[in-house]
Amino acid sequence: MSTLGFPLFPEQASTMAPRVDQLYYFLFGVSVFFATLILILIVTFAVKYRRRSDDERPRPISGNLGLEILWTLVPLSLTLVMFVWGARLYFITFYPPSDALEINVVAKQWMWKAQHAEGRAEIDELHIPTGRPVKLIMTSQDVIHDFFVPAFRVKNDVLPGRYTTLWFEATKPGAYRLFCSQYCGTQHSGMIGYIIALEPAEFQAWLSGGATAVSMATAGENLFQKLGCVSCHAPNDTGRGPSLVGLLGKAVRLQSGASVIADEDYIRESILNPQAKIVAGYQPIMPTFKGLISEDGIMQIIAYLKSLKREEGAQVKK
Amino acid sequence: MNGPIEERRQHYLNVNYGLKSWLLTTDHKRIAWLYLIVVTFFFFVGGLFATLIRLELLTPQGDLVQAETYNKLFTMHGVTMIFFFLIPSIPAVLGNFLIPLMIGARDLAFPRLNLASWYIYILGGLFTLAAAAAGGVDTGWTFYTPYSSIYSNTHVALTVIGIFITGFSSILTGLNFIVTIHTMRAPGMTWFRLPLFVWAHYATSIIFILGTPVIAITLALVALERLFGLGIFNPELGGDPLLFQHLFWFYSHPAVYIMILPGMGVISELITCFSRKRVFGYDFIAFSSLAMFVSGQSVYASMIFSLLSMLVAIPSAIKVFNWTATLYKGSISFDAPMLYALGFIGLFTIGGLTGLFLATLGVDVHVHDTYFVIAHFHYIMVGSAVMAYLGGIHFWWPKMTGRKYPEPLARLAAVIIFLGFNLTFFPQFVLGYLGMPRRYHVYPPEFQVLNVMSTAGASILALGYVLPLAYLIWSLRYGAVAGMNAWKARGLEWQTPSPPPTDNFDVTPVVLQEAYAYDVDEPEVIYASEKAAHV
After folding, report:
1. B40 and chain A in contact, CB less than 8 A
2. Between chains, do A38 and B346 touch, taking CB under 8 Å as contact?
3. Pairing of strands A134-140, A101-108
4. What is the pLDDT of residues B151-170, one digit of tens each?
5. Interface residue B368 vs chain A (CB under 8 A)
6. For B314-359, how does the pLDDT look when each residue is reduced to its tens digit (9 = 90+)?
């Protein structure tokens, strides 16, 4: 990669990487231009106007309005270009494509745990297919962590108490370093791993390999039974709690009169802190499940609820 | 001027002797020395931590110190350097010494408050040193919750209480400067005749007063949360860990200007003196100082934050261009302070331009929390602020002590520091873009070559910092007698003997022109004694 004995640029292994690098080259070019300009001016002036005799009294120049306007407007317009270009890239990284493959990630001091919808779980490794957008739904069990893959040019904080997302599309197979980039305690620098990008067919083979795993939705359904959720949340709105069929992504009207979208964060909050948002027409009788269910378990229940949505759609077709 | 008479003249250093005369002084010049001694102590303590960090990073394995120790080292390095060296350095030492001299006042507006500020600073420093001695703190100088509030079992509370206390010292110093600049200017010293050094300190003082309470409260909340389990930042109790970051950066973003603005003030004085030119675009530099603190009050929403960070770049660019233009058709000499000033412009340019990478959202996603950030803020805070501080110390050393420092050695040190600095921190830009995260005790082997370069640079830099310490102390006793105006500068502080008398001026000066009248031969054209002005 380089004759210097060390690389100067990280590998480009995602659709985002060349886009970020392009902007980086632009910023680099602007920086080199201005740094060189200042250097040349200083050296030239320093040599040309060096003091030759102690009696020199140079004529004062108090300023030049034209120059001041020039060197205000030129940097201003350049920074606005940078701002707009950077903001457009940021929008792309912020909103995952809707057809992305969803994978759940739980961070804790000091490891990365991931579980695929089909059930296969892994630690400090994440297998993904190339050529397909992958969306990570992440949360932390303790402090703030940060999921960082330099070869993909993406990172995002992983927070306790809420979900954050990160998406990327790997362009070539390989193993790419995964770092925790938000300081998280003693073994922070040990919270590393690899993203292993596989050709789609190999990825499918990998998914079905390993120990016979239960899919996340099935694991979630088991939890739903075991924790007794089903006794109130009956599928046909006959229970003491609202039905959860087809809930995800829909708007829910609350007792307060407000309306919220039932996303992953809403489900998570309703399990751990049920009194926070009461659905209109229901009593605040649900107990908290804090301490009874792990972050992984909540993600499985969410996966189960998402699968209910699909089944309902199928039923309507019949 | 012959020796014996010079010896007999009474000035602020020989007016009385003994420890008590120093510890109970209300003379702003002596208080500046008290600060200088303590600030220097903290600089070398912080430097010692940095040395250990760089030695550990010589190899990819964690072989010199344990992970826990390493985390404490970078935390204590950040805390001492930022809160106990960089923030007080230029304002409390040079600002304290020079502001009354530059505006023709006998002292600051509240001399006893000034001494109290120093004691408050010492008290805060003792708390933080006690925390270090008791086993240290490992949260990083940013104290992010919930790690700092719940998970860390090191001396977080003691450390943040130390910083909380020290904050009051900054607030009181800022207050003192503002009142002094408003009320104690000599006759004829109008606002637009103020040296740019004074303008810079005026802007800094406003940030001291507006910004410091926010971080003090934020850190106090961390301490309360640890001691009493308040739950403000604890998601388990319905708190929000991100709230800390919003509050913290509300202060710490402007705080960067606390650290760099006074340095910019110093540079404006140095560039003009050593090129014997009125500063190019005085009003643009003055107003860009104020513009920086306004745009520093940022909201953390990514877009606004990005845009504001971009806009901060404009006043910085204006200053760099104006300093460069000041050299044009000047009469430039290359004494040590000027070498520091020219070095400052170069390093500040790189630091400022790389700041744009961090302000640009799409690229920031990649370089955030990597060594790119480390390199960037060291270019600003060490490359620029410390260069300005050292340049200022050298420039005003003859005024403060009445002695000259050895010029050839000083030039050598300035060059060593410039080269050592770049070798230390430039490779870190590359490391950051490659993806090396900050605060890593152990790192992948592919990053080693660049880390070895950085450590090599740091050892050169260390030599560069020890040199001035040695020869400046030497010069106190053996340096040549400096005389009133060692650099033929035009500022008011150079129109009184060195070292100045306790009351600064024997007669109240009347200011007839601004401090950059380098085209006139006689200082009397710029300043007159009160009597002369009335004639």
Report:
1. no
2. yes
3. parallel
4. 888 999 999 999 999 999 99
5. yes
6. 888 889 999 999 999 999 999 999 999 999 999 999 999 998 898 8
B123 at A interface, C-beta within 8 A: no
Phi-psi map region of A242: left, alpha, beta (phi>0 left; psi -120 to 50 alpha): beta
CA B436 to chain centre: 28
Q: Kindly report the backbone phi and psi dihedral angles of residue B221, in degrees, each rounded to the nearest multiple of 5, phi listed first.
A: -65, -40
CA of A310 vs chain B CAs: smallest distance (Å): 32
Which residue from A130, A210, A206, A136 is spatially nearest to A174, judged by alpha carbons? A130
pLDDT per residue as tens digits for the range B374-429: 999 999 999 999 999 999 999 999 999 999 999 999 999 999 999 999 999 999 99
Gap from A253 CA to chain B (nearest CA, Å): 22
CA distances (Å), A26 to each of A79, B242, B361, in order? 11, 32, 14
3-class SS at A114?
Answer: strand
Residue A136, φ and ψ in degrees, nearest 5: -95, 135
Q: Taking CB atoms and an 8 Å cutoff, what residues of chain A touch B313?
A: 75, 79
When CB atoms are compared, the residue of B306, B346, B438 closest to A39 is: B346
- Note whether B4 contacts A: Cβ–Cβ < 8 A: no
Tell how strand B527-529 and strand B509-511 pair up.
antiparallel
Mean pLDDT, residues A10-35: 94
**DSSP-derived 3-state class of residue A146:** strand
Give domain B3-534's CATH number out of 3.10.350.10, 3.30.200.20, 2.130.10.10, 1.20.210.10. Answer: 1.20.210.10
Residue B486 has phi, psi (to 5 degrees) of -60, -30
Taken in order of first residue, the domains within chain A and their CATH numbers are 1-45+96-213 (2.60.40.420), 223-317 (1.10.760.10)
Listed by start position, the domains of chain B span 3-534
Residue A86 or residue B119, greater confidence: B119
Nearest chain B CA: its distance from A192 CA (Å):
10
Distance spanning both ends of chain A, measured CA to CA: 58
What would the pLDDT profile of A233-278 be if each residue is shown by its tens digit? 887 777 788 888 888 888 889 988 889 999 988 999 999 888 888 8
Instruction: With CA atoms as reference, report the closest residue to B208 among B308, B314, B95.
Output: B95
CA B313 – CA B322 distance, rounded (Å) = 14
Which residues of A are less than 8 Å from B280 in CB distance? Answer: 61-64
CB B181 within 8 A of CB B242: no
Place of tokens 């990327």: A168
pTM: predicted TM-score of the whole model, two decimal places: 0.91
Whether the complex's predicted ipTM surpasses the cut of 0.95? no
CA angle centred on B57, ends B54 and B61, rounded to 5°: 155
B39 closest CA partner among B458, B340, B389? B389
- Report how far apart, in Å, the C-alpha atoms of A264 and of each of A113, A117, A151, A272, B161 are: 18, 15, 28, 12, 39
Half-sphere exposure of B368 (CA within 13 A, CB side): 21
Please judge whether B365 and A188 are an interchain contact, meaning their C-beta atoms are less than 8 angstroms apart.
Answer: no
Residue A262 contacts residue A233 (beta carbons within 8 Å): no
Q: B404 and chain A: CB distance < 8 Å anywhere?
A: no
What does the block give as tokens for B184? 């104690």
Q: What residue has token string 């850190």? A: B219
**What's the rounded mean pLDDT across residues B261-290?**
87
Report residue A62's pLDDT band, with 50, 70 and 90 as the boundaries: confident
| Strands A193-198, A125-129: pairing kind | parallel
CA of A29: which chain B residue's CA is closest? Answer: B353
Q: Does B63 touch chain A if contact means CB atoms closer than 8 Å?
A: no
With 60 as the cut, is the pLDDT of residue A154 above it? yes
Tell the residue number behind the tokens 């420890």, with chain if given: B19
Whether residue B304 lies within 8 A of chain A, CB to CB, comes out as no
d(CA B298, CA B279): 30
Is there a contact between B383 and B425 (Cβ–Cβ < 8 Å)? yes
Question: What whole-number distance in Å separates Cα of residue A62 and Cα of residue B317?
Answer: 18
List beta partners, residue A147: A156, A180
